[in-house]
Amino acid sequence: MANNRNSNSASSNEQWLKQYYFTRAAFSVLWVVAALTVGQQSSEVAAALLIIYPAWDAGANIVDATRSGGFAANRSQVINVTASSVMTIAVILALTMSMNWVLGAFGLWAIFSGLLQLGTAIRRWKTTGGQWAMVLSGGQSAVAGAIFMFQAQMPQVPSISTVAGYAGVGAFYFLVSAIWLSVSLLRRSVRGAEL
């Protein structure tokens, strides 16, 4: 009976994460499209998009931590919420200086939040499917952050398209995790129906 309850709880958590990952992928795709279209034409829109991106990440991590056992059980996400909230303010300040400053701030955030995402995925690895993609995403985010920080030192002025590439890769990994979970849940329900 306890095993059945644990199985239902794990399945319910995976259902939630599947929806969460699909939502994160969809948001990132829409953000990338906006960044590469309207964001290229209007500096005001680009600025708004650059502020929205870390703010959205903070909000998404709050919802995920709340739905996945609460803040006490999800310390890496609580730290990520703080980092993303601080980044939102840092981007607002960096926008008053230059895009090089903005890219440097995004680089620092990508390293920090990537490592936190990596920690969250490793913690979930034993209980939830699709975490290998989140591990790759977190690791790649940290590497991208280091590249951003290097590029921020260059004399060329970066554009929002640099961050759009990063967001696009993030969307891909969220989509892969969502699809992986969908297939796992489908296989499990087929197996359950056969028993």
Automatic annotation (TrEMBL):
The keyword Transmembrane applies. Pfam families: DUF308 (PF03729). It comes from the Bacteria. InterPro entries: DUF308_memb. Keywords: Membrane, Transmembrane, Transmembrane helix. The chain crosses the membrane at residues 21-39, 132-151, 163-186. This is DUF308 domain-containing protein. It comes from Rhizobium mongolense subsp. loessense.
